[in-house]
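ok so I'm stuck.
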Amino acid sequence: MSSDAIEPLVGHETDGARESVRAAVNDCVHCGFCLPACPTYQLWGEEMDSPRGRIHLAGQLLDGAPLTEAAAELFDRCLGCMACMTACPSGVQYDQIIEAAREWTEAGAGPPAGPEGPGATATPAAPPAPRSRRDRATREAIFAVFPYPRRLRAAIAPLRVAQRTRADRLAGRGGVLNRVSPAAAAALRLAPQPGRPLPAGRFPERVAARGQRRASVGMLTGCVQSVFFPRVNAATARVLAAEGCDVVIPRDQGCCGALSLHSGRTAEAARFAARLIETFEAADVDAIVVNSAGCGSAMKEYERLLRHADPPMARRAAALSARVRDLAEFLAELGPVAPRHPVPVRAAYHDACHLGHAQRITREPRALLRDIPELELVELPDAGTCCGSAGVYNLLQPEAARALGVRKADAVLGSGAALVISANPGCTLQISAELASRGQTIATAHTAEVLDASIRGVRLRA
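replied:
not stuck anymore, here's the structure
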């Protein structure tokens, strides 16, 4: 089945999907180990703003309770950081629960009617719980732009003019913009200052391995990454080539669907996923290397995303997901051959949630960084706590995101680090913006950029 035929099949839950969510809800034993790990529970101390509370709420909806605006907001306030899954002793698949809940919320209704077991009667359809007009408009605007690099580049062109003329500072004064559109005010604050981005299409479709060829890999360029941090993609390709990899960079690759998946827009995510599967199947590579934590997490879950909508595509998804590797994960498996030169800096590593919690990759990036001569790696006291970025959370829930960003910036400043290293573009934007708001000059960089500087023996540009 082609990717164009996917969308009509997704956006409603089959009985199998519903049963999976019910099983995940029933796995929760209400022990409370998730509470202290949850950023929103840390912020507000409310049971319903904890994973346990949201799981209980999802169970009530499955039992026929209506999806109210208040219930929808509780799901919206979850960051989806998956810290609760790391803390959970029962292995509750909270990711399945929150993704389903967000799909219900995005659709404006509770779970579809369906039997819940032997002898059960069908649950009546819940009445709609529409979002506010402004909230709907904001979400539609975000998802009409962010997953499409060309549109995103066009959208930020006026922002670049405003930054160069300092009109952005005037727009942010007095809180007027925040009252009109909190999301636009957050976007203005988070946007990086103009750098020297690579022109669109600058990347070649293939970068040859240096020295003996050890593997052929595909590289995801991403949406936000390719627009705001093209230098990270360039560094990734150079590092992979230096380690003996032929790097294939499909020119026609699109969004992986991560932003949509993590926001309840399942049909949209499935469409993006199907097209990307087809693209990388044609690339015929040994592995697909991803340098954005949220993207890698989503791509490893493609089979589950498509399982109940299109089993043949789901089988292809499973085959592709088996080849997806985060950059640090892949390099650790491959083993280094390129020499490392000194990078004399005191650096703190921030665990991106969808790398540390969702993919459980924490040791590999630290090991790669510790192998760099003269790089002093220090641990942040809350390295595993979300910085508040969480995809588009910092646009949709700016106050909560800002509170978490303040805490992360405090941890960075307390560490004495001159450099913050992360593996996700959203985290870099979030941490950089909060540090900049305090007038701090602490640099930020991706793991790939630090490795690239060490391998080439050049000064790190951060």
